[in-house]
């Protein structure tokens, strides 16, 4: 039996030395040292040995088991180290290679303008108000002094969903909703940014979807001169100190009197940028305000028009075409 154990030890040691993978090594361990392994199989024959031989053979079997365990442990460590070296070699980074330039995004130019306009008016005590883009006829037209069959409705060819629902044609509907929520309390001092929709042919200066920012102030003693001061302050902060502004008489059904607001461009002359006026008494009355006690002014501007003038952009469609050559110009604006 001694010879069988020594032969088994030599055979196992050679096999362990030649193994090349951890999986093969685990299989060898089971083959030679497992409960049903070859070493256990040899030891099952110890019953035929004399009482004097048994302790000697038992001691030899333990030495062989310990020896094979050490060989397996050492081989396992060597295989693991080799695998790690191979993995590190595959994952080596050449630090001398040039880096990969990552493109960093930025805010869309329309968002940049909206944020700038909001900052200006918030600095003058205005709050930002929002409302739904799918609006009712009541808030989009009737509450703004445009009842059914009113000719002013023809000025805004609309996208109707049902006879009573449409995509809002202006953010003035947010002004009406805000007045209703205030329930007759003053002061009201808000701006309303958001998308609006009108049936229009898309070209260099028109779009069926565009962005508006409208403003509203309601309080006691609000006057046209206050409107003039607010707009002049806004224009100088957007286009620069000393920018000339003028007001021209105009017509809007929800303001009376109404004006168009122009600025002077050194190369293009006078350019209209927004509409404004004193809130019509009927609009105040419909919203629950006594026009004998309160007055107000409102204004509305197209954000695209402001951006086109400020950044000298000649086609409104650039804002919606997602051309990276165009958008990258505004990273540092």
Automatic annotation (TrEMBL):
It is an enzyme of class 6 (ligase). Keywords: Aminoacyl-tRNA synthetase, ATP-binding, Cytoplasm, Ligase, Magnesium, Metal-binding, Nucleotide-binding, Protein biosynthesis. InterPro entries: aa-tRNA-synth_II (IPR006195), aa-tRNA-synth_II/BPL/LPL (IPR045864), Phe-tRNA-synth_IIc_asu (IPR004529), Phe-tRNA_ligase_II_N (IPR004188), Phe_tRNA_ligase_alpha1_bac (IPR022911), Phenylalanyl-tRNA_Synthase (IPR002319), tRNA-bd_arm (IPR010978). Binds 2 magnesium ions per tetramer. It comes from the Bacteria. One of its GO terms (biological process) is phenylalanyl-tRNA aminoacylation. Its main location: cytoplasm. Residues 113-329 form the Aminoacyl-transfer RNA synthetases class-II family profile domain. Mg(2+) binds at residue 256. GO terms for molecular function: ATP binding; catalytic activity, acting on a protein; magnesium ion binding; phenylalanine-tRNA ligase activity; transferase activity; tRNA binding. Its EC number is 6.1.1.20. GO terms for cellular component: cytoplasm. It is found in: Cytoplasm. NCBIfam families: pheS (TIGR00468). Belongs to the class-II aminoacyl-tRNA synthetase family. Phe-tRNA synthetase alpha subunit type 1 subfamily. Tetramer of two alpha and two beta subunits. This is Phenylalanine--tRNA ligase alpha subunit. It comes from Thermoactinomyces daqus.
